[in-house]
């Protein structure tokens, strides 16, 4: 029971660090907590720069090359607006590592153009060795995937766009 309580407080601690990072416009924060012999917590929270977001966008936009109407609209939208401000953006509820599939070499949870229902798992974020299934907050179609499998994500970062 105390391990669960410790885990919950660690998750709250990491979320507080992410908020501190955002509020103070820091790019990275690293903390080590020692709980006792062979028991510690090392946390490094870092913010992705705008360059990284833009670098991943062309790879995502290149994937739906088949529909002629969708290809020109995606780059224009990403050039003019921040994906986090999009009304269909699903943002990260925590800091962690993104996994697009339930296990290595398995099919991804979602793909661009796929319809999802409210509550469907769209990806997993691993935080503190816990796999957190991230559900679709509403029904719709996956228009953009803004993260890469195995990549780091911060609290509040846009993950996907559902329209």
UniProtKB/TrEMBL annotation:
<dbReference type="InterPro" id="IPR050709">
    <property type="entry name" value="Biotin_Carboxyl_Carrier/Decarb"/>
</dbReference>
<keyword id="KW-0276">Fatty acid metabolism</keyword>
<dbReference type="GO" id="GO:0009317">
    <property type="term" value="C:acetyl-CoA carboxylase complex"/>
</dbReference>
<dbReference type="GO" id="GO:0003989">
    <property type="term" value="F:acetyl-CoA carboxylase activity"/>
</dbReference>
<keyword id="KW-0275">Fatty acid biosynthesis</keyword>
<dbReference type="InterPro" id="IPR011053">
    <property type="entry name" value="Single_hybrid_motif"/>
</dbReference>
<keyword id="KW-0092">Biotin</keyword>
<dbReference type="InterPro" id="IPR000089">
    <property type="entry name" value="Biotin_lipoyl"/>
</dbReference>
<dbReference type="GO" id="GO:0006633">
    <property type="term" value="P:fatty acid biosynthetic process"/>
</dbReference>
<dbReference type="InterPro" id="IPR001882">
    <property type="entry name" value="Biotin_BS"/>
</dbReference>
<dbReference type="Pfam" id="PF00364">
    <property type="entry name" value="Biotin_lipoyl"/>
</dbReference>
<comment type="pathway">
    <text>Lipid metabolism; fatty acid biosynthesis.</text>
</comment>
<protein>
    <recommendedName>
        <fullName>Biotin carboxyl carrier protein of acetyl-CoA carboxylase</fullName>
    </recommendedName>
</protein>
<keyword id="KW-0444">Lipid biosynthesis</keyword>
<comment type="function">
    <text>This protein is a component of the acetyl coenzyme A carboxylase complex; first, biotin carboxylase catalyzes the carboxylation of the carrier protein and then the transcarboxylase transfers the carboxyl group to form malonyl-CoA.</text>
</comment>
<feature type="domain" description="Lipoyl-binding">
    <location>
        <begin position="87"/>
        <end position="163"/>
    </location>
</feature>
<dbReference type="InterPro" id="IPR001249">
    <property type="entry name" value="AcCoA_biotinCC"/>
</dbReference>
<keyword id="KW-0443">Lipid metabolism</keyword>
């Amino acid at each position: 029971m105390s391990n669960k309580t410790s885990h919950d407080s660690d998750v709250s601690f990491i979320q507080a660090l992410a908020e501190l990072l955002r509020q103070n416009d820091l790019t990275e924060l690293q903390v080590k907590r020692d709980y006792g012999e062979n028991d510690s917590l090392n946390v490094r929270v870092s913010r992705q720069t705008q360059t990284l977001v833009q670098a991943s966008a062309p790879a995502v936009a290149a994937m739906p090359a088949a529909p002629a109407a969708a290809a020109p609209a995606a780059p224009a939208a990403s050039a003019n607006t921040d994906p986090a401000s999009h009304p269909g953006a699903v943002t990260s509820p925590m800091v962690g590592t993104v996994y697009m599939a339930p296990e290595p070499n398995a099919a991804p949870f979602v793909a661009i153009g796929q319809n999802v229902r409210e509550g469907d798992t769209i990806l997993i974020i691993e935080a503190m060795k816990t796999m957190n299934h991230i559900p679709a907050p509403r029904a719709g179609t996956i228009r953009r995937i803004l993260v890469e499998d195995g990549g780091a994500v911060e609290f509040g970062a846009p993950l996907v766009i559902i329209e």
